[in-house]
Amino acid sequence: MNETNLISRLGKGRSEFFDLLWKRMSEKGDFPALSGAVQEIVEAMHDEDHNASELTSAILSDFALTQKVIRLANSAMYSSLGGEITTVTRAALVLGVDAIGHLALSVRFMDTLSASVPDSKVARAEMAKSLLAGDIARKIAAKANLKDIEEVVVCALMHHLGRLLLAFYFPVEWEEITKITGGSFEAENTASEKVIGLSLDEIAQEAAMRWRLPAKIAGSMAHPSGTLGTSIPGSHEWLRLVAGFSGEAAAIVAEGKPGLDALVDRYGEGLLVPLEDISESVSTAVAHARETALLIEDGEIEAQAAGKPANAQERLTRGMENFRSALVEGMSFGNALNMVLETLYGSMGFYRVVAFLRDGGTLKARVGFGQGMPEILPKLAFPETYVPDVFHLALSSNADIFIQDIADPKISEKLPIWFSASLSDVQSFILLPLSFNKQPIGALYGDWKCGASDMVEKNELALMSSLRDKLMGVLNPGKK
Which domains are delineated in the chain? Predict the structure, then answer.
């Protein structure tokens, strides 16, 4: 081992390098946010029993991410599926959990890079190459007629992870590596071994293992090696090839170097995509590089934080129409419940929404989106036995209620202890009882935090009630 590399200077071995890497990540607080989001989304994709609900919750925890996922789901890429998609739940049902999961991963990765890039020209350049590579891969996947295009995008983005980690957290060593390679992708692993004591592939694979990334994504993070043989589009090897090609093409274009045609020739046979289509994918991606992030207006994020949006009735009406369309195609009560909660959450600008369902002699929070979810759910439960509080009064009378100010003495004295202890930041809330065969079985709850709510209009409450009634119709199809 080279005694001048970083690992040798640390004095022990590779574990010390990774300890230092994770420490620097934690101190800056950038990539750890991505790490947590990646793990949450990947775990939801792996959970066969609850994946749609868990994935939706993971995406909805980030309002900006939610809007970008919905925008992408409605983009020209998916227009052939027909119909407007207004909720993440609906997107997951129409496009599939894996497609939405990969889409969310790619958007989250790009957002994290854009927000956390250091004040370094070199790091910004590496970020730009990564985003360009993702767009090149997207367009090649479309040419190959792949169904899950976002999986290919994630692979191309993650292929850059090793170099991004070094550029962000070991800028001195990364600058030394780039001087050795002269910008050549092929020489990066060797140069990294000389400077760090580990190849870029080894660094990326360690991150993949810690984040529990799927095998396809983890495999694509390594540089293609040896003869680039023919592979089936969408296979593990094909994903590695398209990620490798996209990365090299992005570097060539970004640095204004020759060799793109030769690169296309070298990868063309393995990708099983006509050479002219590969070249067109690169040129189109370069021309539209700034469009890949699907920027969100700051005002939209501020609107969510500010409480009920001005066009809440319009949003509820559109949500009702989309829910009706989804019901015609058929859906389980669980998926219908997710879609109703998400529609309420986005339309009314709630801080959080929760579905309480009867379980034995207790009404327990089963699904929730927004602040504190899902950690807070186990704390939200109350006995079915009647006591004169606002929750039991609403359920026993099957009455929809809106509480504008819980500080009102007439209201505060009727709030249960569990509510005040677990939801201390609430100012206003709505409660929509769920009744089956004239018996209360639960409730839909939505709240706004202190200073975030306006008066709920009569038409808005009527639309929310109608949405609730349509949901209960899933349990009782014969009832109009």
Answer: 6-291 (1.10.3210.10), 302-475 (3.30.450.40)
